[in-house]
Amino acid sequence: MKFLFINSMSRTGTSLLYQLLYGHREIYFAPYRIQFACAAPFGFPLMNPFKDNEQFFKTLMTKTTIVSKNGEWPQICTANLSELFPEKMDSKNLIMGDSPLQTAILTIHHILDINLPSEEQYYCLHDDHSYMLGSEVFLQHDCKILTTLRNPIDMIASKKNMLTMYVYGRQDPQQFCLKDDVLYKEFLRACFSWWAASYEYAHHCGFPVLFGLLKSAKTREEMMDRIVAYLGITTNKVLLDDKTPLAAAKYHNELLANGSSLNTIAYLTKGAKEDNTKAHKMSLNAHEYDFLLRIADNRFFESLSDSVEDFIQNIAYFYINFALNDLEGTFTLWQKLYRDKCFGELFAHYSAFNFGHSNAKEAFF
After folding, report:
1. So what's the pLDDT on residue 256?
2. 236: left (phi over 0), alpha (psi -120 to 50) or beta
């Protein structure tokens, strides 16, 4: 069985891609999430620093999460395996495979007491921001890589929705304003996800998927056809349906169990829905939007949302042509670290620019 890695940045439509691929008989979706990038040690178990089996086992149990309670969005309840199965915290439950990743998968299936897939062509795994590991760590396995991308301004609007929920609860995000420094840092991260995807695609690694082309009824089928061709799987009507019911199973990956974070804006505004790809219209105020337009020209990103062919042809040149008004040289530094394969150092820089649950209050004026 080959691996299918979805190695995107958060807020880029990964949940939508999951929902569209879910139900295809040639893809097995892991009912858990190994936090390759989002939990220390960085890259584990794709990059395995441990020779000690007991340490490997304990790390795996703390880095692997499942949905511990299904509920209506946004009540997302996840927990790691060490919390849910304390009675199984014995390294005797480690099942050795031919690689650290295979060992991890065999062990998790053993802990969860679920069968390994036998009919599917791909075993799908995902963790947010794992594109920061570079491509070689994935390509050591027989695999395909999908990377979702989204207009950076809409990504920031989506991030603002989540930060609003963390700090202010169920309030309209346009009542509040993100600090200019926060807008700048999050925009830098969003643009770098485009740069890395472009760099890898230009070097024949992975396949980029644009959120706007997936979400639009006019372009969804063509975008999915390109994905089908890249993966070498059969065309199926299920690939156009983002409402495929979950199969009856004991455990689910949080992306499938809890659905898309696009629901955030409907929750915060008590009913409004994104009926197009311009999320910023419902989330960002005039100051925020104007500030972002001064950093970089948004017309390039908007133009790619109209045509699958234009997106596929232009994305390979993005990493060469993209210009950013970055006086501190941060973007240039990140590019150098990526090219030099200094991924741990790069991720430390990148993570320092992140605003999430722990520092959400600091993001607003």
Report:
1. 77
2. beta
